[in-house]
Amino acid sequence: MQYVLRNKANQHGWETGFMKRERILTGSSFVVGLVSAWQGDPSVSLAGMSQAIANAGTPISRQGLNERFTKEAVDLMKAMLDEGLQVMVKGIPKEQGRISRFTEVVLTDSTIITLPNELRDVWQGSGGYGDNASLAALKISIRWNITAGQLQVVELSDGIQHDRNTDAHQNKVEAGSLHIRDLGYFKLDDFEKIGLQGAYWLTRYKIGTHLVDAEGQIIELSTWLPQHEGHYLDTLVFLGQQKRLACRLVAERVPQEVVQQRHERIRETARQNQTTPSQRALELAHWTIYLTNVSESQLTAKDVFIMGRYRWQIELLFKLWKSDLRLDEWNTRNPYRILCELYAKLLAAIITQWFLIIGCWHNPRRSLSQAMPTIHGLAWQWANSLNSLFLLKHTLRALLRSLSRCQMDKSSSRPK
């Protein structure tokens, strides 16, 4: 923390032109002040930012701070975010049942931050029309090892960038690891590549994917699945017209209320895209379907669905970033200030993840939502103690003691 937020911040302050004289606002005070301000209070005002920067070491007025949101400030905050992303903090995992059967379990997904149109030359959106139109947007792609909590990749790209073209998707995989991916990363060549590297993949079925059985007969799931009795279906299939990639298809019937919810989402998506709901999608909504190259000896059909639900952990992480850190909100129309705020909040999210990893990741019952208020409460203190190794250690020990108690309550009737 001292190396990144103090040493590197001042170095980049000079390199970007943000710092021009010694006895004015330093790069470290600016960076630490903004990061701790938004980590401590996601709705902080300009006055609160000014106070946080003073707490970090350099008093500055609100007017003076407002004038410092410049292109040089944006370059500084972007450089500091890049520095933070180079720090790989990894927790020590405990044996956790199914997860421990793999060297690591990795989630890959992305989220979009829609930006004001004035920033379309910085981060290009996908355009479009209606509710989904965005001329300026930032895509945040994440590759997250949930076994140890480590954020292996956090990549920023234009909102128009396809998920499969990101580094989070293309990076080499570790032998024995399991990769759980959303449909945006569905590609047979990639699944084959993961298997050839001695690793495993797990994904939901993508409607329209060509399937054949062991005899080479084409499978039409909408008519084939209802013929099977029982709650689970677990069978060998081959994917693709040309590829014929062997894998397991594991399906589970869902309750009628879940079917109804899915039908509503399908129709709403079709309405937003001004299309007609797919009849095949409506029929397949009666089932949850996964494809995987993991053998049945490693994961039973029931295990597949349990592991598949881990995909929601990355959705919860994005939710925490957007709700607790308000990553996609700002109270200004100044494009430079918006970018400074966005990069500072992302850096705050990275530092928050460091705290979570060393503070509570070893506990399988950890509660990230309970941990967030604790981290909010100590943001001001770690920022104030950053220049003293003794005080910083004292602050972090207090934080870790508090985080160790942030865990879900046991419940026999509604287990978490």
Secondary structure elements and their pairing?
Layout: H1 2-15, H2 27-40, H3 46-55, H4 62-67, H5 71-85, E1 105-115, E2 124-127, E3 134-145, E4 150-158, H6 167-170, E5 178-181, H7 188-196, E6 200-204, E7 211-212, H8 221-224, E8 232-239, E9 245-253, H9 256-272, H10 279-284, E10 287-292, H11 301-308, H12 311-323, H13 335-360, H14 368-384, H15 389-403
Parallel strand pairs: 1-5, 5-6
Antiparallel strand pairs: 1-3, 2-3, 3-4, 6-10, 7-8, 8-9, 9-10
Features:
single chain, 416 residues, alpha+beta, Transposase Inhibitor Protein From Tn5, Chain A, domain 1, 2 domains, 15 helices, 10 strands, 43% helix
End-to-end Cα distance, whole Å, is 34 Å
DSSP E strands, number: 10
Q: Give me the CATH architecture of the largest domain, please.
A: Alpha-Beta Complex
The class by helix and strand makeup works out as alpha+beta
Instruction: Please give the CATH class of the largest domain.
Output: Alpha Beta
Largest sheet: 10 strands, mixed
Task: Describe the protein in words.
The protein is of the alpha+beta class and about 425 residues long. It folds into two domains: about 1-85 and about 330-405, no CATH class; about 95-315, Transposase Inhibitor Protein From Tn5, Chain A, domain 1 (Alpha-Beta Complex), CATH 3.90.350.10. Helices cover about 45% and strands about 15% of the residues. The chain contains 15 helices and ten strands. The chain has helices at about 1-15, 25-40, 45-55, 60-65, 70-85, 165-170, 190-195, 220-225, 255-270, 280-285, 300-310, 310-325, 335-360, 370-385, 390-405; strands at about 105-115, 125, 135-145, 150-160, 180, 200-205, 210, 230-240, 245-255, 285-290. Strands 1, 2, 3, 4, 5, 6, 7, 8, 9 and 10 form a ten-stranded mixed β-sheet that branches. A hairpin with a 6-residue loop joins strand 2 and strand 3 (about 135-145). Helix 2 (about 25-40) packs across helix 13 and helix 13 (about 335-360) crosses helix 14 (about 370-385). The radius of gyration is 24 Å and the shape is globular.
